[in-house]
């Protein structure tokens, strides 16, 4: 019996039904008491001290690590909130994600769905979503402006809408040029503003209408040994100047197929021609350049002397202020515009080239910029500023340069080459980086000319073919705008030529 009494006493002691009066205070009670005292001391007058019991005295940062050697003031309250969900809620959330893209029953309203969820699950199913917002975002106040910069936008930018330019590697059309005189120093092709291509084939001049495709024989030399050495259209495109091997310059009315006059002043063949309004300039194998005023009977008004050998390149600037000439003496001269009653002297003389200079081209959008190309011994394209007389850039093309033309639609320069490439090269101006190389000719390229809309360049080569390269087709919107501005005008020389 004594043993059972002892066991009963031990069980009653171990149950601890009654509090131990002399035991130390528990840690959770100390925290609760200290939190209550802090809330009472920090409460603002007029506001209830409703701080939670879980207030911690632990500072939010380690003292002395805020960059100023001072401890960070501690904030009352916890630093994060960890939500609690039972496993059933997590399963429901996973189920909702799997059915997120399924259509919603239009007959079931939100209140009915909420009631079903409470009856089946014991809680609202919307509260079990993993990403859940308590309410809709507030509307911005009236007059609010967001000054933040937009880093990304779905709106198309000019760079993204820029179309890729396709340059065909084959010509758009090939024309036969039989009996062509294979002479580097001649200029045997020119394209008029009325879209007619004039080609000199030995002793004949043919006209090809690029709009309609018709071919017309304009004229033939009387003697079989004579040949056509140069052709050049007036700006309006209704008169054609023809230089011949018998030292003469003929002027033809193309529409009526009638020769208006034959001007004789040179002592050798006329290999280069260029127009400036009513003044026709002609360059001869003698090295002389003559100015002809086609309005008056005594047409020869000036003679320019500077070249010691044949003049094979002759170009007036678009504004008519400068005339550029290139010769077999490797020189380039820049002459001033025609001034009545004054002696003509060269403004600049460039002697940088080491070969014959036949290729000359003025920049259409920069009238003071001249491009020149050298022959086999030189092979360089040089860009000149005729106002200052300086050479802006020089490029070694590794091939003979026979002709140069500017393409204003894309601000590019096209060069025609002989030995050893026999091709056309497109260069970006003014960087002079190669854009494309157009191959196909089986002989050296002799002449280049640009179409009136500047979309196609025609190349005449020693393989007796003319190839049309449609490499500069203009954007349709810009093309329509330029066509509206272009108006057909008749030449003011129609009544003045005698």
Automatic annotation (TrEMBL):
<dbReference type="InterPro" id="IPR056150">
    <property type="entry name" value="WD40_CDC20-Fz"/>
</dbReference>
<dbReference type="GO" id="GO:0010997">
    <property type="term" value="F:anaphase-promoting complex binding"/>
</dbReference>
<feature type="repeat" description="WD">
    <location>
        <begin position="438"/>
        <end position="470"/>
    </location>
</feature>
<keyword id="KW-0853">WD repeat</keyword>
<dbReference type="InterPro" id="IPR036322">
    <property type="entry name" value="WD40_repeat_dom_sf"/>
</dbReference>
<dbReference type="GO" id="GO:1990757">
    <property type="term" value="F:ubiquitin ligase activator activity"/>
</dbReference>
<dbReference type="InterPro" id="IPR019775">
    <property type="entry name" value="WD40_repeat_CS"/>
</dbReference>
<dbReference type="InterPro" id="IPR033010">
    <property type="entry name" value="Cdc20/Fizzy"/>
</dbReference>
<feature type="region of interest" description="Disordered">
    <location>
        <begin position="474"/>
        <end position="498"/>
    </location>
</feature>
<feature type="repeat" description="WD">
    <location>
        <begin position="304"/>
        <end position="335"/>
    </location>
</feature>
<feature type="region of interest" description="Disordered">
    <location>
        <begin position="37"/>
        <end position="82"/>
    </location>
</feature>
<protein>
    <recommendedName>
        <fullName>CDC20/Fizzy WD40 domain-containing protein</fullName>
    </recommendedName>
</protein>
<feature type="domain" description="CDC20/Fizzy WD40">
    <location>
        <begin position="175"/>
        <end position="469"/>
    </location>
</feature>
<dbReference type="Pfam" id="PF24807">
    <property type="entry name" value="WD40_CDC20-Fz"/>
</dbReference>
<dbReference type="GO" id="GO:0031145">
    <property type="term" value="P:anaphase-promoting complex-dependent catabolic process"/>
</dbReference>
<dbReference type="InterPro" id="IPR015943">
    <property type="entry name" value="WD40/YVTN_repeat-like_dom_sf"/>
</dbReference>
<feature type="repeat" description="WD">
    <location>
        <begin position="221"/>
        <end position="262"/>
    </location>
</feature>
<feature type="compositionally biased region" description="Basic and acidic residues">
    <location>
        <begin position="474"/>
        <end position="486"/>
    </location>
</feature>
<keyword id="KW-0677">Repeat</keyword>
<dbReference type="GO" id="GO:1905786">
    <property type="term" value="P:positive regulation of anaphase-promoting complex-dependent catabolic process"/>
</dbReference>
<comment type="similarity">
    <text>Belongs to the WD repeat CDC20/Fizzy family.</text>
</comment>
<feature type="repeat" description="WD">
    <location>
        <begin position="375"/>
        <end position="394"/>
    </location>
</feature>
<dbReference type="GO" id="GO:0005680">
    <property type="term" value="C:anaphase-promoting complex"/>
</dbReference>
<dbReference type="InterPro" id="IPR001680">
    <property type="entry name" value="WD40_rpt"/>
</dbReference>
<feature type="compositionally biased region" description="Polar residues">
    <location>
        <begin position="487"/>
        <end position="498"/>
    </location>
</feature>
<feature type="compositionally biased region" description="Polar residues">
    <location>
        <begin position="52"/>
        <end position="73"/>
    </location>
</feature>
């Amino acid at each position: 019996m004594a043993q059972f009494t002892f066991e009963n006493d031990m069980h009653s002691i171990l149950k601890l039904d009654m509090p131990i009066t002399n035991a130390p205070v528990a840690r959770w009670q100390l925290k609760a008491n200290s939190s209550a005292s802090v809330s009472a001391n920090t409460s603002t007058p007029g506001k209830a001290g409703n701080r939670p019991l879980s207030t911690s005295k632990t500072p939010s940062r380690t003292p002395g690590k805020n960059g100023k050697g001072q401890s960070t003031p501690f904030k009352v309250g916890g630093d994060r909130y960890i939500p609690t969900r039972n496993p059933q809620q997590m399963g429901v959330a996973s189920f909702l994600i799997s059915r997120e893209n399924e259509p919603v029953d239009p007959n079931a309203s939100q209140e009915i769905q909420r009631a079903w969820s409470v009856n089946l699950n014991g809680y609202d199913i919307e509260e079990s979503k993993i990403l859940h917002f308590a309410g809709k975002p507030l509307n911005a106040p009236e007059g609010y402006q967001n000054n933040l910069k937009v880093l990304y936008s779905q709106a198309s930018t000019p760079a993204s809408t820029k179309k890729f330019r396709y340059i065909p590697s084959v010509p758009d059309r090939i024309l036969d040029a039989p009996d062509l005189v294979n002479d580097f120093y001649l200029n045997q092709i020119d394209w008029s503003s009325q879209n007619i291509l004039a080609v000199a084939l030995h002793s004949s001049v043919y006209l090809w209408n690029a709009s309609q495709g018709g071919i017309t024989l304009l004229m033939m030399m009387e003697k079989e040994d004579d040949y056509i050495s140069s052709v050049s259209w007036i700006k309006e495109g209704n008169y054609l100047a023809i230089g011949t091997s018998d030292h003469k310059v003929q002027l033809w009315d193309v529409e009526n197929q009638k020769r208006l006059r034959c001007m004789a002043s040179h002592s050798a063949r006329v290999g280069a021609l260029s127009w400036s309004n009513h003044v026709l300039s002609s360059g001869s194998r003698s090295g002389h350049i003559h100015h002809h005023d086609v309005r008056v009977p005594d047409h020869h008004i000036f003679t320019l002397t500077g070249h010691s050998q044949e003049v094979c390149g002759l170009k007036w600037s678009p504004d008519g202020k400068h005339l550029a000439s290139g010769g077999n003496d490797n020189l380039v001269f820049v002459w001033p515009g025609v001034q009545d009653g004054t002696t003509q002297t060269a403004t600049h003389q460039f002697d940088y080239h080491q070969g014959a200079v036949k290729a000359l081209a003025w920049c259409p959008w920069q009238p003071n910029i001249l491009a020149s190309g050298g022959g086999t011994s030189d092979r360089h394209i040089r860009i000149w500023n005729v106002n200052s007389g300086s050479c802006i850039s020089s490029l070694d093309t590794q091939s003979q340069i026979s002709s140069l033309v500017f393409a204003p639609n894309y601000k590019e320069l096209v060069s025609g080459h002989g030995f050893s490439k026999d091709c056309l090269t497109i260069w970006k101006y003014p960087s002079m980086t190669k854009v494309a190389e157009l191959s196909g000719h089986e002989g050296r390229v002799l002449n280049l000319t640009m179409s009136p809309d500047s979309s196609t360049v025609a190349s005449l080569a020693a393989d007796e073919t003319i190839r049309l390269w449609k490499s500069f087709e203009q954007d349709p919107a810009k093309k329509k705008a330029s066509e509206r501005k272009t108006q057909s005008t008749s030449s003011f020389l129609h009544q003045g030529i005698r």
